[in-house]
């Protein structure tokens, strides 16, 4: 009873966007790990359920989401990853979702996004470093002066951005398009489901804000370590009533069946390639077959790939996040793939609305569109993060 009371207090504190103690974060993550380790790579979720896309540390917009969608445990939630990075409140966002997962484990499901990752980069102050283009930033791969110490790899979007800057013992910088963040699963484990997106990665969170935020708010990287350890336990996907497959990014040429996903060892950092990477990084494209992704990770997949996957697994549709959609949601391939985006006015500057998908017990769909929280209800620093669409 005392344990539940402490958890309730922490949830209320986090709802006010107030940090909990470092020791409480450690204990919370330990409890979350006990719950998450029992979940499948393809976590079963029952309807009715509300499905949500990227949040990216926009805490006050997460509060707007709960305002329009209902609070946990009254509403059953599935969050499809990318809880951290870019927004100013990744710590509070992830910890609130994690606390809700622990409190109501059957009411919230969290799956991993590509930002739920630790390993790519330890650039702790990205806003204090500016890279501008010189004559050597051409369209080819460039290795200059110290080939064993620095590697610059350019992708198709690298007229302006660097895909991989590697300084082996000191800095590793990998940049593609933009997807790495952490997740939250604690207080109401049966009412919220979180799945992993490409931002649920240690490397990406070190470039796009979460690492630096933990260091700034707690004075050490201990909280970042506790949270990124949890990333590895997040499910890679979910299946609603056996008919709607939910994943952060998309499909993989290495995966034809859900059973193949179930065999992946997910308790690791997000790899740079392979099926686990693809699930968190891939995108649908108006084409056929497989294509090279401009993100530098994952693949582009066409309508025929989706048709084959859905038929083989007897699912009606794929629901995913990972891509900014100005209208909040977007259908692909004759409504066999759906993108849901749940971070309104992304990076506090994009001007988009957000959406959540509400599924009733018959899997009938109802979209709720919502806008960013009013300016007067939030405390936003004057400097806004740069919106890098492709990560």
Tally of domains: 1
The percentage of residues in β strands lies in: 15-25%
CATH class: Alpha Beta
Low-confidence stretches: 120-187
Organism: Petromyzon marinus (Sea lamprey)
Cofactor: Mn(2+)
Keywords: Hydrolase, Manganese, Metal-binding, Protein phosphatase
Protein name: Serine/threonine-protein phosphatase
Descriptors for this entry?
alpha/beta, Serine/threonine-protein phosphatase, 6-stranded mixed beta sheet, EC 3.1.3.16, Calcineurin-like_PHP, hydrolase, 391 residues, 26% helix, Metallo-depent_PP-like, Purple Acid Phosphatase, chain A, domain 2
Describe the structure.
This protein has helices spanning 2-15, 22-36, 59-69, 90-103, 202-207, 210-218, 222-231, 258-262, 275-281, 303-313, and strands at 42-45, 49-52, 77-79, 106-114, 151-153, 164-167, 171-174, 186-187, 190-198, 237-240, 244-247, 283-284, 290-292, 299-301, 317-320, 329-332, 337-340, 354-359, 365-370. With 391 residues, the chain is α/β, with parallel strands linked by helices. Helix 2 (22-36) crosses helix 4 and helix 2 packs parallel to helix 7 (222-231). The chain contains ten helices and 19 strands. Mean pLDDT is 84; it is low at 120-187.
Question: How is the secondary structure organized here?
Answer:
Blueprint lengths: L1 H14 L6 H15 L5 E4 L3 E4 L6 H11 L7 E3 L10 H14 L2 E9 L36 E3 L10 E4 L3 E4 L11 E2 L2 E9 L3 H6 L2 H9 L3 H10 L5 E4 L3 E4 L10 H5 L12 H7 L1 E2 L5 E3 L6 E3 L1 H11 L3 E4 L8 E4 L4 E4 L13 E6 L5 E6 L21
Parallel strand pairs: 1-10, 2-3, 3-9, 4-9, 11-15, 12-14, 15-17
Antiparallel strand pairs: 2-18, 5-6, 6-7, 10-11, 13-14, 16-17, 18-19
Helix pairs in contact: 1-4, 2-4, 2-7
């Amino acid at each position: 009873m005392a344990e539940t009371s402490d958890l309730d207090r922490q949830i209320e504190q986090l709802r006010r966007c107030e940090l909990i103690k470092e020791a409480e974060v450690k204990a919370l993550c330990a409890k979350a790990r006990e719950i998450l380790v029992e979940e499948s790579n393809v976590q079963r979720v029952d309807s009715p359920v509300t499905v949500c896309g990227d949040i990216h540390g926009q805490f006050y917009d997460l509060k707007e989401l709960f305002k329009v969608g209902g609070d946990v445990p009254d509403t059953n939630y599935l969050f499809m990853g990318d809880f951290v990075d870019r927004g100013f409140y990744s710590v509070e966002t992830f910890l609130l979702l994690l606390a809700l997962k622990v409190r109501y484990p059957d009411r919230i499901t969290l799956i991993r996004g590509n930002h739920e990752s630790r390993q790519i980069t330890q650039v702790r102050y990205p806003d204090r470093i500016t890279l501008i283009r010189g004559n050597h930033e051409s369209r080819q791969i460039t290795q200059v002066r110290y080939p064993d110490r620095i590697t610059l790899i350019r992708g198709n979007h690298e007229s302006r951005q660097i895909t991989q800057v590697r300084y082996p013992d000191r800095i590793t910088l990998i940049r593609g398009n933009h997807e790495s963040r952490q997740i939250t699963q604690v207080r109401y484990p049966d009412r919220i489901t979180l799945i992993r997106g490409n931002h649920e990665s240690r490397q990406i969170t070190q470039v796009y804000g979460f690492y630096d935020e933990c260091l700034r708010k707690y004075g050490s990287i201990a909280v970042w370590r506790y949270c990124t350890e949890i990333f590895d336990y997040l499910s890679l996907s979910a299946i609603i009533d056996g008919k709607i497959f939910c994943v952060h990014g998309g499909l993989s040429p290495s995966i034809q069946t859900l059973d193949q996903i179930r065999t992946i060892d997910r308790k690791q950092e997000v790899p740079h390639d392979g099926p686990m990477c693809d699930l968190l990084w891939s995108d649908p494209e108006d084409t056929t077959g497989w294509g090279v992704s401009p993100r530098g990770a994952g693949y582009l997949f066409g309508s025929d790939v989706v048709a084959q996957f859905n038929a083989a697994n007897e699912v009606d549709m794929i629901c995913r996040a990972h891509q900014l959609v100005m209208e909040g949601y977007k259908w692909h391939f004759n409504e066999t793939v759906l993108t849901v985006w749940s971070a309104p006015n992304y990076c506090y500057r994009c001007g988009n609305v957000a959406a959540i998908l509400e599924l009733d017990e018959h899997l009938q769909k109802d979209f709720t569109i919502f806008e960013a929280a009013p300016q007067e209800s939030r405390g936003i620093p004057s400097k806004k993060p740069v919106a890098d669409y492709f990560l």
